[in-house]
Specification:
This is RecF/RecN/SMC protein. Pfam families: SMC_N (PF02463). It comes from Necator americanus. It contains four helices and six strands. The protein is α+β, with helices and mostly antiparallel strands. The protein has one domain: Rossmann fold (3-Layer(aba) Sandwich). A two-stranded antiparallel sheet has the order 1-2. Strand 3, helix 3 and strand 4 form a beta-alpha-beta unit. The termini are far apart. The N terminus is likely disordered.
Length: about 130
């Protein structure tokens, strides 16, 4: 099929043909506001985490879900970026519920409630932790 020929996407076999031609989405980012951008493969683990979170938060602003579940999203971040992510989650939590796991204090400082999970003698225990 040439460039100028139209394709009827209502036909499943032709729609499949379109999917087969899809090669992916590229993301280029700049962390310093300059015109210099880098591709995802060039980023550190923490930078990749920030890009992924920025994408999730942008989608949340446009098409919010009632809750989000994040597992150690702050593991690769430094303290400054963990605090920024915690502040963003705290702001967005006005319209959605966020459940996160972390080993770091920054997310806990802005949390309304948090729980400790301990594993002893092959049994997990959950304890509510209260701010003093």
């Amino acid at each position: 099929m040439g460039k100028d020929e139209s394709m009827d996407t209502s036909q499943p076999d032709q729609a499949l043909h379109l999917v087969e031609n899809f090669v992916g989405v590229g993301i280029k980012v700049s962390f310093n506001g300059s015109s210099e951008t880098r591709e995802m493969v060039q980023l550190s683990g923490g930078q990749k985490s920030l890009v992924a979170l920025a994408l999730i938060f942008a989608i949340q602003k446009c098409d919010p879900a009632p809750f989000y579940l994040f597992d150690e999203i702050d593991a690769a971040l430094d303290a400054q970026h963990r605090k920024a992510v915690a502040d963003m989650i705290h702001e967005l939590a006005e319209n959605a519920q966020f459940i996160t796991t972390t080993f770091r204090p920054e997310l806990l400082e802005s949390a309304e409630k948090y729980y400790g999970v301990k594993f002893r003698n092959k049994v997990s225990g959950i304890t509510a932790i209260f701010n003093a």
